[in-house]
Amino acid sequence: MVTYRPEGLDDAFTPTDGDVTGASGAPRPGAPDAGLPALGLVGWLRWAWRQLTSMRVALLLLMLLAVAAVPGTVFPQRPQDPAAVVEYLDAHPSAGAWLDRLGFFDVYASVWFSAIYLLLFASLVGCILPRTRVHLAALRGRPPRTPRRLARFPARGEGASTDAPRAVAERTARVLRRGPSWLPFVPSYRVDVHDEGAGTWSVSAERGYLRETGNLLFHLALVGLLVSVATGEMLHFRGQAIVVQGTGFANVQAGYDTFERGAAFDPADLDPFTLRLDDFESRFDPDTLQSRDFTAYVTVTEPGEAPQERTIKVNHPLTAGGAKIYLQGNGYAPQVTVRDAAGEVAFAGAVPFLPEDEVYTSRGVIKVPDVSGGQDQVGLVGYLLPTAEEWVPGWWRSSDPQPTDPLLVLSVWRGNLGLDTGVPQNVYRLDESRMEKVTDDAGQDLTVYARPGETVELPDGLGTLTFEDLPRFVALDLRHDPALLGVLVFSLLAFAGLTVSLFAPRRRLWLRLAPAGAGTGAGTVVDAAGLARGDDVGLQPELDRVLAEVLGPAPTDRPAPRPADRSADATADPPVAPQHGGTDRDDEAPTAAPAPGGV
């Protein structure tokens, strides 16, 4: 028996001469092995791009970026505190070396953190672009045509009017397009008025695309934040400088005590200006000694401009040379003169002492390297007490942060300060490896006490120390970050986009306006329905509002809203509206051009 099969209908289930299996299902001799085609390089790249731009990978990268930032808060970071990094490496020689190789002491500039950052950026961009294209196409589309049956929608309304259906349809379109009272020029709904024939008109209205707009705005703002942060990391600089009262500071890299910059910032691009500290005032609560106000009076001179007297307060920075100048700290800088054993001035100047408590008990180091006659170098380590009182015999403390009765209490060291070894030293610490403390015959430490205007002898004939004056100093923090404005703007945009995407309702309304009787002059019967994406308690009130504005108050005998029909009949004509520009009737097609868009 011959079975006829039209040419071209052969498939994998119909054995032919070219099949690799015979009638029994066994492979034919010499037939090639069946297998999936190779993807190739382009196929693998397309697969990798689709995986990278998927939502799950974007969320994974976002979580991974947050986890990768944790080491930056656990371990000291070299750009912010290089001394703390050195201390950690000394305390943990084995683990610290490996952590340093892996970039844990400069997390935000490490290769692995940058890789996560760039992958997240690419994922967001690859996700946003196609969604934006689809969204723009949807905004240009028309609201879906009015369904054939409106009885099964969750929001229902009915009414009647003495006007003709076309007049009611035009009035309905005006009501739906009118924006809210606080923004009347922005249409609320996109509206499409359609003549269904036989005197019947329908109005389709749609709103809620602002939800997707807000979603895209949120993701675009995230991209903007990433770009802003990256720009700030490349072009920023930050430096700290200590300025003693009566002295000044020049905005050059050599004028900073510490200086850090982005990879793309050239220190030669620092805007030149000078700043002089004229005076400093501090106020404290007389009962609790808590600080109340700090004010630095400075004079700023920029090129081509006259000197300007300005003030710097806590949380009220000064702007100069494109940088914000913050008042970071303050204290006392005793001005001393040290003469060596030959009577030559070996050191003269103000030495900042760092406060350690609320009464400004301050610790400092005076290093005297320039001695003459082969004398040992001198180091003086101790405390400044702004208001000194003897707590017990031989023990002094400060009772007030104001300099009512200042006292210098110093121990004396002699030897080699190690300043000529080429290794940088902390100015607030004394390298004791080549020094020895001066003691008396009983082995007790010898301490020097000095008040302003006094000259005291240093033990072992090392010279004299004169406490000349007690000026104040301020610690200034200068920062320049061109990304701050961008971070603020994009953060606000992200918040606005997220708010809109969460709370903007997505709704569709349909009204069918049919003649009440024969002809078009006997009034209009209105049948209305509404559909929302998700649960929307405001859908029925919104439909009632539209009917009330178009026809007057809603009738009291309107049937209660009924849930959508889930029976088998519903599959023949589902209540869910079709996509943009579509219709639920096979015999209809979109006709008129789209009406003005809404939100």
Unreliable segments (pLDDT under 50, ≥5 consecutive)?
554-599
Distance between the termini: 68 Å
Multimeric status of the protein: single chain
Structural class: alpha+beta
Cα-based radius of gyration, to the nearest Å: 41 Å
Instruction: Note the overall shape.
Output: elongated
The average pLDDT is 83
Number of strands: 26
Approximate strand percentage: 25-35%
What's the total helix number? 10
Largest sheet: 6 strands, antiparallel
**How much helical structure, as a percent, in the residues?**
25-40%
State the domain count.
4
Report on the architecture of this protein.
The chain is of the alpha+beta class and 599 residues long. It folds into four domains: 50-140; 155-207 and 505-551, TATA-Binding Protein (2-Layer Sandwich); 232-332 and 476-490, no CATH class; 335-470. It contains ten helices and 26 strands. Helix 4 (82-91) crosses helix 5 (93-101), helix 6 (111-139) runs antiparallel to helix 8 (209-235) and helix 8 (209-235) packs antiparallel against helix 9. The longest helix has 29 residues, at 111-139. This is Cytochrome c biogenesis protein ResB. It is a multi-pass membrane protein. Keywords: Cytochrome c-type biogenesis, Membrane, Transmembrane, Transmembrane helix. Residues 55-544 form the ResB-like domain.
Give the secondary structure arrangement, pairings included.
Blueprint: H1 40-52, H2 55-68, H3 71-74, H4 82-91, H5 93-101, H6 111-139, E1 155-161, H7 165-177, E2 190-197, E3 200-207, H8 209-235, E4 237-244, E5 248-250, E6 258-261, E7 274-284, E8 291-301, E9 308-313, E10 318-320, E11 323-332, E12 335-339, E13 345-350, E14 354-355, E15 362-368, E16 377-385, E17 388-392, E18 395-398, E19 407-415, E20 435-437, E21 447-450, E22 455-458, E23 463-469, E24 472-480, H9 484-503, E25 507-515, E26 524-532, H10 539-551
Helix pairs in contact: 2-6, 4-5, 6-8, 7-10, 8-9
Membrane topology: Multi-pass membrane protein
Transmembrane segments: 57-75, 107-129, 216-237, 483-504
Protein name: Cytochrome c biogenesis protein ResB
